[in-house]
Design goal:
Heme c 1 binds at residues 49, 52-53. The protein is mainly alpha-helical. It contains 17 helices and 8 strands.
Amino acid sequence: MPDVTRKILWSVLTAGTALATFSAVPARADDPSADLMARGEYIATAGDCVACHTAPGGKPFAGGLKITTPMGDVVTTNITPDPDHGIGKYTEEDFEKSLRHGIRRDGSRLYPAMPYVSYAGMTDGDVKALYTWFMHGVKPVAETPPVTSLNFPANLRITMGLWNMVATSETPETGDSATFDKMRRGKYLAHALEHCGTCHTPRNIMLSEKEDSYLAGASLLGWYAPNITSSKTGGIGNWSEDNLVEYLKTGHVAGLSQAAGPMGEAVEHSTSHLTDDDLHALAAYILQVPAKDDEAEHSPREQYGKPLEQADVRSGELTRIDNLAQMDGAQIYDANCAACHGGNGAGTADHYAPSLFHNSVVGSARPDDLIMAVLNGVDRNAGGVHVHMPAFNQSSDVQRLSNAEIASVVNYVTATFGSGDHGVTAEQVEKMGTELPKTP
């Protein structure tokens, strides 16, 4: 065998042996598996951790969002694995105590703006996967948000121990949650991971959820999280499973409703990323929750209204720029809303701008969500579509409406296309404007 050939052969054999040896080296014990990491990321998405722990314009999971409560603003914490500013020094046991029991690493109590009473229902396997992903899959951020400062006695974190004694926590599920049957999986998603009751269940005087009114509707940061029980008048008992899946995936169902505010965020960051199987499991479970009729809702919200036949309110007379006369609701609608929602309220043909009749927001007996949508706008990315409606508050880049003008147009829209004139006042709009998202 020629020397050159022999050298080439030995080079190939040596390289092959080295490659085989390298491939056979086992992964380090502290390197998490790809499957565990993927599962942890999915659990974090289902739990919608990013929505609360990311301030507008801030870095993911670095905290800083202010959540308004009756006791003051709770500022969310940094939950990145930074050892000095986040949870980098947390052991898995520390993490579990925070997640399920609301107890920080230093032993102090978390405020229940962190839904640990819901996360208490998570399986051990999902807690482990979530911890693993946060420690190995999230980028550390060296930022410390401002410290939460609440009114007395809530400023004494020890009082949260007393609150925990009266609040009902979910019981930890057992086994592998990925193997649960459809209805059990749906319940697990609704109660533990998606924590639907945190927003949609009314609370008692102690601010704990009313167990006998699960998903019956509740006020939230100026918005109203509606009744989503199987009630056919006050809830979503007329929706099909496919309707609810479409809503959770895209935030919109023509002729029924569209998501904005906190629910828009939940759709964008969480439910739109769930698997179809999980969405159907969640929808199937929610649709069988016992009906709770709403004393304010006497007809299905989505069945109110019809197109306005006399749509054009313009007289043909030009309005002088120095005419300071207050416009009425119809004129404000024509000037600011009709271009997208149509003079007759039918919206656009592709439903990008929704119809205002057969719309559960406009048909609701509570105008809260319509007021907040006008004040705050809509900005939702889901299902591959970016939906945007500008805000009309005093920070608007489009058109700044006064509180009186917003009240007037809301009353016009509900009277014309929905459940009637609710007599919304400028004072009511001003109060709700204080609930808009805030940064430190």
